[in-house]
Design brief:
The structure holds 2 protein chains of 2 kinds.
Chain A lengths: L29 H21 L2 E2 L7 E2 L3 H7 L2 H33 L3 H10 L1 H4 L2 H11 L6 H5 L12 H29 L3 H9 L4 H12 L1 H14 L4 H7 L11 H11 L3 H26 L1 H10 L1
Antiparallel strand pairs in A: 1-2
Chain B lengths: L34 H25 L3 H6 L12 H43 L4 H13 L8 H10 L6 H25 L3 H9 L4 H12 L1 H16 L3 H6 L8 H12 L3 H34 L2
The chains are: A mainly alpha, B mainly alpha.
């Protein structure tokens, strides 16, 4: 599940530390810190460094100044990959959010059979992106897939062969994989809305729709932001799914940033330009995370912490 | 720097039981059938299950039947031939590699994350170093693996570990740390401080307290984190793709991909390999499902 982005963060609040005033525990953080520095922090600095070098992946690494940056930024390929990345991000958000929200609200009631449904919904999350991509490329194959076999006109199209259809198919496959996860998040969110609010609404004679829009939806504000952050940042990591399902095609219709980086670095052996794309990928990820955090409202989320 | 939109994270004991307060969330909805949500819920079940059903039945069909039959009809002449073919084609080696990588990365990652989480909770009050370390881990949540894969590739080459399983294991451990530390620290933080105090009065060392107090109390969170990270590493694709080369070092997701290349037209065989790679995960899910689902809903909920 590499495509799952990390959840939001509760920053350590010093005031309520567990009474620990002990410095004798400091060494316990070292193994984790060393590992993470070696394969997380140093590579993060390294990719910035490599973006100013010339390297074919095997031979010597030579300084290249800002050449890579000029060449990548002036190439239409980068802009296109950025556009596709944002398009897939936006469309998958627009499609996944309402569906996950509805299913989450539905699952939140404590009926037995809904618990059972939640168990089945979870199954796509157990499959690797590679397995999912392979399954759908077989299922949607225009010659011997589901549509051809059933003889249904609508299903029988070249789903991955035309630009617009390929993007739509990709959004569907992504939703198939991740709506179950987001509906679980919403399920958890709905369950924490105080029962008294619904009782009050009932006394006031509010119907189901009214209750949904006046109580459920506003109370889920922070859950929506959590889920959206995971969706948006997670959409940057659809690499394996896209790599196996469409390999960026048809043409370059589904060639997202991560794929552009892979093709440039590991196929064309241009590690310098690929590093430039990787740095842009980091910046996009960080920028989105910060933007969504701002939307969440820093102070509002702080007070939420105490209430939760 | 970290993507902290909201402070929602797992809380131990009560939330893991899956029923905070034991009250029904929406008493009103229990009375009338919710057509809209209900219809949607069942529709989604169909959308989720049809491809899965199709994978399973197709994997038991012969090639000839696959092209001739209705794709959604159960096989008329079920066969295990596809499975035999896949297992003979190095599946067992990929499987063994995946087990080694998953166990070899998940357990150390969760263990050192647990130690780090304990240190951060117990010592952050006194140590600026621990607070900075915590900050580093939080920032780590926002680093996408794909973005740093080129330098990792360089490091692995320089360490002369290219094309070994260790090349997959080490970065997998590193990228499991930030989230594990975060979740575990939030659990340990909720252990009542009186318990730590009494351990200390009894003369326990921090190391002893870690194992005899924090470890048992954090077990639900540890299991959730192990399942979650294990699943991610088991399904990992980009690290094996970039850091290994020879078929002997392939893990299952990469093996699947190469199967597709080899048997592209033999759809039933490809789908049998999909079933085989997913089966171990499904079995683990059947065992640990309650834990994982309640851990996740409690963890991400409001």
């Amino acid at each position: 599940m590499t495509a799952l982005a990390p959840p939001p963060v509760r920053v350590a609040d010093r005031s309520t530390s567990t009474g620990g005033r002990s410095k004798s525990v400091v060494w316990m953080v070292l193994p984790a810190l060393v590992m993470f520095a070696a394969f997380g922090i140093i590579p993060l600095l390294g990719v910035l460094g490599l973006s100013f070098t010339q390297w074919d992946g095997i031979g010597a690494i030579n300084p290249a100044g800002a050449d890579n940056w000029f060449s990548v930024l002036s190439e239409p390929g980068l802009l296109h990959a950025l556009w596709v990345t944002f398009l897939i991000m936006a469309l998958s958000w627009v499609f996944q959010t309402p569906v996950s929200l509805l299913i989450g609200v539905f699952l939140a009631s404590r009926k037995r059979y809904r618990g059972f449904l939640a168990v089945l919904y979870f199954i796509p999350l157990l499959l690797s992106s590679a397995a999912i991509a392979i399954t759908f490329s077989a299922l949607l194959n225009p010659n011997f897939g589901l549509g051809a076999g059933l003889g249904v006109e609508f299903l029988n199209q070249d789903w991955l062969g035309q630009s617009n259809l390929a993007i739509a198919t990709l959004i569907f496959v992504v939703s198939w994989q991740f709506i179950p996860f987001h509906s679980l998040i919403y399920q958890g969110g709905v369950r924490q809305i105080p029962t008294s609010m619904y009782e009050a609404a009932q006394i006031d004679g509010a119907g189901r729709v009214r209750t949904f829009f006046s109580i459920t939806l506003p109370q889920l504000k922070y859950t929506i932001i959590t889920s959206s952050t995971l969706m948006v940042v997670g959409s940057l990591t659809f690499f394996d799914l896209i790599f196996v399902l469409t390999a960026g095609g048809p043409g370059d219709a589904t060639r997202v940033l991560a794929l552009e980086m892979y093709q440039t670095g590991f196929r064309a052996n241009l590690m310098g330009p690929a590093s430039v794309i990787a740095v842009i990928l980091v910046l996009v990820g960080l920028g989105l995370a910060l933007l969504l955090r701002r939307l969440g409202g820093g102070s509002a989320s702080d007070s939420q912490l105490e209430g939760a | 720097m970290a993507i902290s939109t909201r402070p929602a994270l797992p809380r131990p004991a009560t939330s893991v039981s899956g029923s905070p307060g034991g009250s029904h969330a929406k008493p009103s909805s229990a009375r009338r059938w919710n057509w809209f949500g209900g219809g949607f819920g069942w529709l989604w079940l169909v959308v989720v299950m049809v491809p899965i059903y199709w994978i399973v039945i197709t994997s038991f069909k012969t090639r000839a039947n696959y092209y001739a039959e209705n794709p959604l009809a159960p096989p008329t002449q079920p066969t295990l031939e596809n499975y035999r073919q896949v297992i003979e084609a190095d599946f067992t080696r990929y499987f063994a590699n995946s087990v080694i990588v998953t166990a070899g990365a998940t357990l150390p990652a969760v263990l050192i994350s647990f130690m780090a989480a304990y240190a951060i909770v117990r010592g952050s009050g006194a140590s600026r170093f621990l607070r900075s370390a915590n900050g580093v881990f939080l920032m780590g949540l926002a680093i996408p693996l794909q973005a740093v894969i080129i330098p990792i590739y360089l490091i692995i080459i320089r360490l002369q570990m290219y094309d070994t399983l260790l090349a997959i294991i080490l970065p997998s451990i590193a990228f499991a740390i930030p989230l594990s530390v975060l979740v575990l620290a939030n659990f340990i933080r909720d252990v009542p401080k009186e318990l730590f105090e009494s351990m200390r009065l009894d003369g326990a060392t921090e190391w002893g307290t870690l194992w005899r107090l924090a470890f048992p109390l954090t077990r639900p969170a540890l299991v959730t984190v192990i399942i979650y990270q294990g699943l991610g590493i088991w399904n990992g694709f980009i690290l094996p793709l970039i850091l290994t080369q020879s078929p002997e070092q392939r893990t299952l997701p990469l093996g699947l991909w190469s199967f597709q290349g080899q048997y592209g037209v033999n759809v039933p065989a490809v789908l049998a390999s999909v079933v085989l790679t997913t089966l171990p995960v499904l079995i683990c899910y059947a065992i640990g499902r309650r834990q994982l689902l309640s851990g996740l809903t409690a963890g991400f909920g409001k």
